[in-house]
Amino acid sequence: MLYLSKSKYCALRQCPKMLWLKKYRAEEEVISEALQARFDTGNEVGDLAMGLFGDFREMTVLKENGDPDIGKMLENTKEALAEGIENIAEASFSYDGLYVAVDILRKVDGGYEIYEVKSSTGVKPVYYTDVAFQKYVLEHCGITVKGTFIVHINTSYVFDGTLDLGQFFTVKDIGAEVEKESAFIEETLKTGEAVIASETEPDYDIGTQCSIPYDCRFFGYCTRSLPKPNVFDLAGLQWESQINYYKKGLVSYEDLYGCKELKTAKIRNQLEFYVDDKPPVIEKEKIREFLSGLFYPLYFLDYETMQPIIPEFPGTTPYQQIPFQYSLHYIEKEGGELKHSEFLAESGQDPRRALAEQLCRDIPMDVCVLAYNKKFERGVTNNLADLFPDLAEHLRNIADHLDDLMIPFQKGYYRNKAMQGSYSIKYVLPALYPDDPALDYHNLEDVQNGNDAMSVFPRLAEMEPETRERMRKNLLKYCELDTFAMVKVWEELKRVAE
Ligand code: SF4
């Protein structure tokens, strides 16, 4: 028998091999931290949405190991249906090995409506697959489904201090799309049965389905025998084009090297650095020109921000970027000492006022401020200026004096093999300073990237004091390394420009 949950059915619909791998090679599935964080966020939003239509009864029962107790959830659902409960959260149904838990099952005249809750800001076609499967199982369990809906986040909602679920969520009727998608279910289930019946790995090749609608978590496994680097490592080439070259048998960089149509500088550089073992390209004049636009006092600024889905502070919207930390290295005059300043907010309160005030104390007006990808720092600074009119002149002055350290790499004035066609500082830094442990983010504890920082900071308030102290130190170390890395990149540019 084919045992399928909603997520496994969606995997089967995307690629039958994915379902087979989930059953027979589950250990090969790679769930990134960013993806896990998205799952956690989805759960949080799902819990909140349960109350969207007022009183509800939740069916969730967990076993001691934290897994859902499906048997009990099915029983509870039967009871809730018999009692005529109006809103059933996580309503569970099983038919012929197929299992679904409906986020919200709402009783209406003559039947029930299915509400699927998503933490996204809109409706994506893949949701139709998920909901069509739910409808299919419910109907086979004798439930009359009168409507199907997606509940997603309304990004225009402005929090006023009390969360209004009716405003925070948007409900979209997807009945027509679900009808169309329902036509594929029987056939998809037959394919799934055939694939799962055999212990032999099915012969499905890499294709566009590996990234659409979701990046497949078995991609590393399915591409394990390809030469390295290969077409999927080539920065600057769209996914569909990568697949096209792969299908034509042009996989390794050596294969791709001769393709005349691959002519953008970014792609040619990657191929030539690798195949010809070309030495680094350093356009001294261009780098000198860039450096001549900088002046002392010179500041290196980097923010850390969070984007709470459920707004915490009055006046903010879902997913609004809230800065909570910055690091600042600075040199006041040529040959001067490198100094450092930093800010990390207390968690649980709106960090923006304290951050803006300290920033204005730390960075004088009319100085040169360097960021790596200044668009981000400028946006954050200008948003603070909009929020605090009394600090606006100073904050806008900082934003207007931002220069971008990314430019020499983005424009290709300095490029080498190790950058792999990327100008992100996460590639540029190790390419300029290979094997320098002081500049290696992997040597940091707990917080090694912006996503870590974004997920650690909001949890500080609920941590034990000792853990909180450690995490605060590690947040500070991480952000400090970001601006120290910028200083080192700037020093390298000066060195090669001489
Ligand atoms: S990587 Fe592609 S071929 Fe392999 S299981 Fe995933 S979707 Fe299927």
Q: What features would you describe in this structure?
A:
- It contains 20 helices and 13 strands.
- The chain is α/β, with parallel strands linked by helices.
- It has 3 domains: 6-196, Lambda Exonuclease, Chain A (Alpha-Beta Complex); 226-272, DNA polymerase, domain 1; 279-498, Ribonuclease H-like superfamily/Ribonuclease H (Nucleotidyltransferase, domain 5, 2-Layer Sandwich).
- The strands form 3 sheets. Strands 1-2-3-4-5-6 form a 6-stranded mixed beta sheet.
- It is globular, with a radius of gyration of 27 Å.
- It starts with 5 loop residues before the first helix and ends with a helix.
- The mean pLDDT is 95.
- The protein binds iron/sulfur cluster.
Q: What key phrases describe this protein's structure?
A:
single chain; 498 residues; Lambda Exonuclease, Chain A; DNA polymerase, domain 1; 3 domains; 20 helices; 13 strands; 43% helix; globular; binds iron/sulfur cluster
Explain briefly what this protein structure is.
With 498 residues, the protein is α/β, with parallel strands linked by helices. It is 43% helix and 16% strand. A hairpin with a 6-residue loop joins strand 9 and strand 10.
Low-pLDDT residue spans:
none
* Content of β-strand: 15-25%
Corresponding CATH superfamily of the largest domain: Ribonuclease H-like superfamily/Ribonuclease H
> What is the percent of helical residues?
40-55%
Mean pLDDT across residues: 95
Task: Examine the secondary-structure arrangement and name the CATH architecture of the largest domain.
Answer: 2-Layer Sandwich
The number of domains is 3
The first-level CATH class of the largest domain is given as Alpha Beta
DSSP helical segment count? 20
- Distance from N terminus to C terminus (CA atoms, Å) equals 71 Å
Query: Main β-sheet: number of strands, strand sense, barrel status?
Result: 6 strands, mixed
